[in-house]
Write a structure and sequence with these properties.
Layout lengths: L3 H24 L9 E8 L2 E9 L6 E3 L6 E4 L3 E5 L5 E4 L5 E2 L5 E2 L5 E6 L23 H5 L8 E2 L17 E4 L4 E6 L4 E8 L1 E3 L7 E2 L5 E2 L8 E2 L3 E4 L1 E3 L5 H36 L1
Antiparallel strand pairs: 1-2, 3-19, 4-18, 5-6, 5-9, 5-14, 7-8, 9-10, 9-13, 11-12, 12-13, 14-17, 15-16
Helix pairs in contact: 1-3
Amino acid sequence: MFDPYIMAVNNNRAARAWMEATSTNLGNIYTPGYRQENVRFEDFIYGVRADEVSYRNEQGKSHPGKGPTNLMIEGSGWFSVRNKEGELRFTRTGDFKFNGEGVLVNEAGNTVQGFLLDESGKPLNTMDSTNGKADVTLNPNQARGGTGHIPTTEIAMWVDPTNGKFFGKYDEYKIRSDGTVVGVAKEGKETVPLYKIALSNFPNPSGLSQVGMLEFLPSEMSGEPIEGTGEIRSGLVELSNVSLKDQVDNLQQAKNLMSISTKMIQQNKALLEEALGLLR
């Protein structure tokens, strides 16, 4: 037998979760790299309840960045960044810059991960910065971030963050569409590959687990990282991928569900009070 009161309460809770997710999406419609939250619902005997949250895969529009270190992925892929605790996270937000030590970081100070290249442009095994030993025994997908069992490293360039001038034997640097960071010398006649920005993707990116507003971790639903195939655009950032039309429609539907469930709760409460009155 269905309990109409419990059903109404569960529908009301689902409507609240739907409205909260929709409001969050609308509030971040202009946030670069933001991924739209999609709330899924599960039917069960006593009404509807909100299930796990997934994220919209579609690419957001491009927007001019603050400089050449602002990067955008066109196509499939996620940037890899490492926080101060050494945890690897994934993001579509390319709000990168060189800090005072010449290391490429995002706005949160997490280091952008890449592959150190030899002179022919092939990735080299890097050293574990924590113990000075070759980082080749760990699963790079879970611990060090590189696909294809190649460990990643921070991208350290001798660039003055105050004026963007390049220090050392190169005149400047450029970031190619394949993510290769090259040093340019001799008035552009000589280019040397230095790093390649690490891009990862997932079998099911919608299933990533969010750990910050713009950073994610792999989950059982997303699967382990695989190689990203997108191209990198220097000087651009990706805007939010929130669909305004969908969110307005969702908000209206959530309000309708909230209104109906609230009236059902009030009606069942009135019936319960009437029944108690008869018993007295």
